[in-house]
Amino acid sequence: MSDTLRNRPIAFSLRLPVVLGLEESVDGTLLEYLTEQGHRAVLVEGGAHADPRSVDLHAAAIWQVLVVAGLLDADKIPGFARHRRLLDEAGAGLPRVLELRHRHPIEPTDRFEMQPGLRGFMTVPKGRLLARDRNGEIRAPESGLLLMPLYQK
């Protein structure tokens, strides 16, 4: 989310990790545009595109946002408790708030290749080999959590 007061109730109601600083390091996002227009805007990363669970997590998030926004009553939504459980399970064991501290931008000509076995929210120590590109090794600049390892071409 863009860290504005109007976005906080929605973002924190989802009980998923809230990542601060993402919109500041990626230009031209819909999230950035909507926030600049004065709208409430949060982005939900629900998982891999081919993962059927991703659809369920996104649907659960939509229902929750509609309730928090005051557009629907939770008791009128069939299976709302199941939606809440899905969100709780997805956020279990993860920090509530994270700050983006480093982003490694890439270009198609970089020949970027992520190391196998890395996953989102995995703890990585400073210096851990994360990827390689045409310039050589890419290592973690500091200890922390890996947000979105890139395995797509």
Helix content: 25-40%
Put simply, the count of helices is 5
The SSE order reads HEHHHHEEEEEE
Structurally, the number of domains stands at: 2
Number of strands: 7
Structural class: alpha+beta
Strand content: 15-25%
Give the overall shape.
Answer: globular
Give the strand order of the largest sheet, numbering strands 1, 2, ... along the chain: 3-5-6
Which regions contain 5 or more consecutive residues with pLDDT less than 50? none
- The end-to-end span amounts to 27 Å
Summarize the main sheet. Answer: 3 strands, antiparallel
Mean pLDDT: 91
Cα radius of gyration in angstroms: 17 Å
Characterization of this structure:
- By secondary structure, this protein is of the alpha+beta class.
- The protein has 2 domains: 8-99, no CATH class; 108-146, no CATH class.
- The chain contains 5 helices and 7 strands, in the order αβααααββββββ.
- It has helices at residues 8-13, 22-25, 30-36, 52-68, 80-91, and strands at residues 18-20, 97-99, 113-114, 122-124, 129-133, 136-139, 144-146.
- Strands 3-5-6 form a 3-stranded antiparallel beta sheet, with no helix packed on it.
- A hairpin with a 2-residue loop joins strand 5 and strand 6.
- The longest helix has 17 residues, at 52-68.
- The radius of gyration is 17 Å and the shape is globular.
